């Protein structure tokens, strides 16, 4: 049987790839990439020549079967995404599940992931955190998710696109309250920047400086005081209801 290697790639700075990842990319029979043109640039930079095949969210189901056939024939494949760790808000999960089910070895290599970099640099609580990935672009679904996690006491980590960040911040202020937050922009790149403050202050910042680039949005979990207040509110609501009845 073959083997599937999950190969993280840089999230901006081309130097952020491990020696082992480079060796595996050189040794495997082929590479499955989210965007083959994007990956070609990385491979060219490191003078790696390898057959490339595309594997992205739109062909994940059909392509994973094709990749499984290759793996079952004994081939080795490295899976890469455009940036960071495959399987984290990127294709990978489905193929990994299938391999585990079929008894095909999966080896994950360590490497860059924007969420972890942003969390460590944020200055927020790193002991407990909840990775939320992308919120739904539909406002109603976005609100539903935030409603569900508003009582979470772990640091919340989101991926967000620059053209949606202001709306997301507004919805968060409305549903979570004006919590302490950080936006980590353009990590590992030339214009890396951390915007720290309350959700409202960060929203104000983006009113004055139009959001650009790739970003991770983090905010603190519910505080013990807030939790206490919410419980009291809920209790009072029940008591009032009982009183009326
Ligand atoms: N698999 C990737 C990882 O492990 O980080 C994430 C892929 S996801 C499709 C892309 C999102 O990750 C971006 O929209 C942004 O939220 C975040 N991201 C990726 N690179 C980043 C960077 N250099 N700086 C800040 N955020 C980044």
Written overview of the protein:
It is found in: Cytoplasm. Catalyzes the 2'-O-methylation of the ribose of cytidine 1402 (C1402) in 16S rRNA. One of its GO terms (molecular function) is rRNA (cytosine-2'-O-)-methyltransferase activity. The chain has 245 residues and is an alpha/beta fold. It contains nine helices and ten strands. The strands form two sheets. The chain has a five-stranded parallel sheet, with helices on both faces. α6 (139-149) links the parallel β6 and β7 (155-160). α3 (60-72) packs parallel to α4.
How much of the sequence is in beta strands? 15-25%
- On the 0 to 100 scale, the average pLDDT is 96
Largest sheet: 5 strands, parallel
End-to-end distance, in Å?
A: 68 Å
Elements, N to C (H/E) = EHEHEHEHEHEHEHEEHEH
What ligands does this structure carry?
A: S-adenosylmethionine
Q: Bin the helical content.
A: 40-55%
Structural class: alpha/beta
Keywords: Cytoplasm, Methyltransferase, rRNA processing, S-adenosyl-L-methionine, Transferase
GO molecular function, one term: rRNA (cytosine-2'-O-)-methyltransferase activity
EC number: 2.1.1.198
Subcellular location: Cytoplasm
